Amino acid sequence: MAKPFNPFEHHHHHDHSDHDHDHAHDDLLDPGQRSLNDSLKVSFFILKLIMLAMVIVYLCSGIFFVKNGEVAIVLRFGAIVGSAASDQVKETGKLHFALPYPIDQIIRIPTNERQFELNDEFWFTKANATQTDDEAAMSAGPLDPERQGSLVTGDANIVHARWVIKYHVKSPVLFARSLANAQLTDSQKMMKQAELIIRAAAEEGVVFAVARVSADAMIRSQTSQVQIDAQTHLQETLDHLKSGIQIISFTARETAMPLSVRTAYQAVISAENESAGIIAQANKMRAEILGGTAGEAHEALWELVKRYEIAVEANKRDEIAALEAEFESAFVMKKMKLEGGREVNISGDVASAISEAEAFQNQIATSARREAATFAKLKTDYDANPRIFLNRHWENIRERIFSNPEFETFVLPPSQMRLHLSRDPKLVKERELKRQQELQNRQNGTR
């Protein structure tokens, strides 16, 4: 009977005695035993291949890639691998090699900006979450420090605040040393632990900063300085702990007075805002009035007026004379010198009054010169012949009287009876209207 073909058997001859012995041994086995023996040989061969593959996979398990937004640090038996800081931090976007676990451990540290909020630590709670703050204030009682967060200010008052903290890992080596010692090699667990540390230090910083200002300043005017103080204190605490964390910003997102005083405080704020609006409107009107009075020079001119009034009240004659000289110079030049040496023009009502005064002065001077010339001519005529001068002068006067429409002429009988008559009201009204019209025309012409 022919022997069945077995692919795992050798079909060529060997000179070795061991192979001859195996063949001799196989010849003694029945076909079932030979089949089992062949299966075991194949299984051991496959097992060797699997073990070899596992060894290769194990040796290659130390190869890793660092993603964007993170860096990696390799720990070898708990110590950071690398002598220099640049060697200790594995850069983003590159393949790196480490020994297999548990010899080496890879710690991935996020370096992107992260943030969290202090929402409840220093904020009030409402009896009904659906109520608005104003509605809750209507029925609010005294502050319960066991249930409601709060802050004590420098003037021993109470305020509430919510904060936002932004940070990132600046020194991965320090960060890993401060947290990896706590057996926190998982990046998510490390960042959670880091947030707990920052939160505790931030609460201390807030209490420290708020205790240095008044409640009113905290709510309205000096929040920026409080934020700076709180961030500085927080960063100093983290640096003291060698955490490797850098605070980017520490801001008060919202501030408020306690609910029990919210209504009264808002009433004060409303009154102050209304007062500020009235003051702003008054300042605007003041600027418009003063600007219309003297233009850009109104402030300098007003200061000069006040100095003059003080000097007059104190009866300082030398100072009064000096200030009057300043007035005269300013009114003649129509300019005022401001602080810094800049000159500005005097305009507005003051400039108009100066122009009218100058015109009136010129008019009086012209009229006086004309009257002086007329008087000189009349005196010359009088000196030449007084009698003829008087007769001619009286004739001129009578002519002006009778030709003047302002006068009413009555013819008296030869007996020279004198009548005292009231003036015609109609004529008086007409003449008054005519006089006012002529006066207005002269004023318009002067301007």
Short description:
The chain contains 14 helices and twelve strands. It is α+β, with helices and mostly antiparallel strands and 447 residues long.
Description of the molecule:
The chain is of the alpha+beta class. The chain folds into four domains: 63-109, no CATH class; 114-127 and 143-257, Band 7 domain (Tetrahydropterin Synthase, Chain A), CATH 3.30.479.30; 270-346, no CATH class; 349-412 and 421-446, no CATH class. It is 57% helix and 14% strand. It is built from 14 helices and twelve strands. The strands form four sheets. Strands 2, 3, 4 and 6 form a four-stranded antiparallel beta sheet that branches. Strand 2 (70-76) and strand 3 (79-80) form a beta hairpin. It is rod-shaped, with a radius of gyration of 55 Å.
Topology of helices and strands:
Elements: H1 17-28, H2 31-60, E1 63-65, E2 70-76, E3 79-80, H3 85-88, E4 89-90, E5 95-97, E6 104-110, E7 114-118, H4 133-138, E8 151-152, E9 158-169, H5 172-180, H6 187-210, H7 215-221, H8 223-240, E10 245-256, H9 259-294, H10 298-314, H11 317-333, E11 335-337, E12 343-345, H12 348-384, H13 386-403, H14 425-446
Antiparallel strand pairs: 1-5, 2-3, 2-4, 2-6, 7-9, 8-9, 9-10, 11-12
Helix pairs in contact: 6-8, 9-12, 10-11, 12-13
